[in-house]
Design a protein that fits this description.
The protein is α+β, with helices and mostly antiparallel strands. It contains six helices and 14 strands. It has a six-stranded antiparallel beta barrel. A four-stranded antiparallel beta sheet has the order 2-9-7-4, with no helix packed on it. It has a four-stranded antiparallel beta sheet with strand order 6-5-3-8.
């Protein structure tokens, strides 16, 4: 009973959908076949149209037009603009604290123009001590050269006269003692005492006379020489300190323009300094220092025409005039920043003169692309 009731309570299976047997309409064909084919075609047309209408540049121009050589055969090199007198790095010969900077950038200076001053208080104190010592030595020399002092001569003359009077008295006393001794009135001991007293009086007279002669003769010549040497030594010490004081004022040694100032009041500068304190240079006419690669030295000719193009202004070309060659091949230091640039290359430095008159100004330190004609003039 239980099994039968369970079977009767089971859910009957769902009926299977039946396919309608009818003919396809035009809407069915358009929906199932024509619309997908049209979508695929439109998608292909859109891709083809985008591809055909894209902007194609066969030879795109560079962001910055590179410089071009005006010669058929060229020695290309990098150059740096510098002053006609070269860039003069001014430092301090002595260490110290800067108390005053006397110039600023772009000032025109002449030889002897003060640039900056160092603290000189210690040397000023030493100078005062040496000046006092020199004054003392000078006074001593003047005293020796002024001898004898006229007020001391009468004193010594009086001593001489006194010694003469004493000697005369002792001479007379000895004469009387000898007469009385001859008459047996006095003893021989009295005569001997008078003779000794006379000898002492004579010695005092000789000493007084010698003192008078020495006084009238003045100071000894060798004492004056020693005093003059002391004065000379004191004056030399003063001159030495004055020279040290003058060195604390750093001055320009050439005429030119202040290109850079790297020192401020209160800074301590060492000797030698870790960087140039002031950079000077004559920029009335500029020079270009060109680094020629050691592999191009054989192709370089000093008499060949040359021109330079500054970076950032490639439409400007500056003719160069040969000045000199520095005949010492050195490691390359002036790097241009190119990724293919070798830093272990040695270069020959050639100096050219550049006149920017009538063209945009050039500045010291500016890099330039230099082109030198390398054609063989002897070839036909």
């Amino acid at each position: 009973m239980t099994t039968a009731s369970s079977s009767s309570e089971r859910t009957p299976p769902a009926p299977r959908p039946r396919r309608l047997n009818r003919r396809r309409s035009v809407g069915d064909v358009l929906t199932q076949f024509f619309l997908p084919v049209m979508a695929v075609g439109l998608l292909g047309f859109a891709g083809w149209y985008v591809w055909k209408t894209r902007v194609v540049t066969l030879d795109p121009p560079p962001p910055i037009e590179p410089a071009h050589s005006p010669f058929l055969d060229t020695v290309a090199a990098a150059g740096v603009v510098e002053a006609q007198t070269e860039n003069i790095a001014v430092g301090s010969a002595t260490p110290g604290v800067v108390t005053q900077v006397l110039v600023k950038v772009d000032d025109q200076v002449t030889p002897g123009t003060p640039l900056f001053r160092l603290d000189d208080r210690k040397l000023q104190g030493d100078l005062a001590v040496k000046q006092a010592a020199a004054a003392r030595a000078t006074s001593e020399l003047v005293r020796l050269e002024a001898e004898p002092r006229k007020e001391t001569i009468p004193v010594i003359v009086a001593q001489v006269n006194e010694a003469k009077a004493t000697m005369a008295m002792e001479t007379d006393a000895l004469k009387r003692a000898e007469e009385t001794f001859a008459r047996k009135v006095t003893t021989e001991q009295d005569v001997i005492a008078r003779r000794e007293a006379l000898a002492a009086a004579r010695a005092r007279l000789d000493r007084a006379q010698a003192d008078l002669d020495l006084l009238e003769a003045g100071s000894w010549i060798y004492d004056r020489d020693v005093a003059r040497a002391a004065v000379t030594t004191a004056e030399a010490e003063i001159a030495q300190i004055e020279t040290e004081l003058d060195r604390l004022i750093v001055r320009a040694l050439v005429a030119g323009r202040v290109l850079q100032v790297n020192v401020r009041p209160g800074e301590y500068v060492a000797a030698p300094a870790n960087q140039p304190l002031v950079i000077l240079g004559n920029i009335d006419r500029l020079h270009v220092r060109v680094d020629i690669d050691e592999f191009d030295i054989a192709r370089f000719k000093p008499s060949a025409p040359a021109s330079a193009v500054p970076r950032g202004s490639l439409q400007e070309r500056y003719p160069l005039e040969f000045v000199r060659i520095e005949p010492f091949v050195v490691p390359k230091k002036s790097l241009t920043g190119e990724t293919t640039e070798r830093v272990d290359t040695r270069v020959l430095q050639v100096i050219y003169e550049c006149d920017p008159t009538g063209r945009p100004p050039l500045f010291v330190g500016q890099q330039m692309e230099v082109y030198i004609d390398a054609r063989d003039t002897a070839a036909p």
